[in-house]
Amino acid sequence: MSLALKAFTESFTLAREFRISRGAKTQADVITVMVSDGSYFGWGESVPYGRYGESTDSVLEQLAQVAPKLAGVSDTEDLLTLLPAGAARNALDAALWDLKAKLTGKSVASLTNLRVNQRCYTAQTLSIDTPAGMQAQAEAIKNAPLIKIKLDEHDVLERLAAVHQASPQSRLIIDANEGWQADLLSALLPDMANLGVVLIEQPLAASADNELANINSPIILCADESCHVSSDIARLANYYQAVNIKLDKTGGLTEAIRTLHAARDHHLQVMVGCMVGSSLAMAPAYGLCADVQFVDLDGPLLVAKDRPDGFEFEQGRMTQPEPFLWGLPGQYGQQGLRELWQSR
Question: One of this protein's Pfam families, by short name (predicted)?
Answer without folding.
Answer: MR_MLE_N
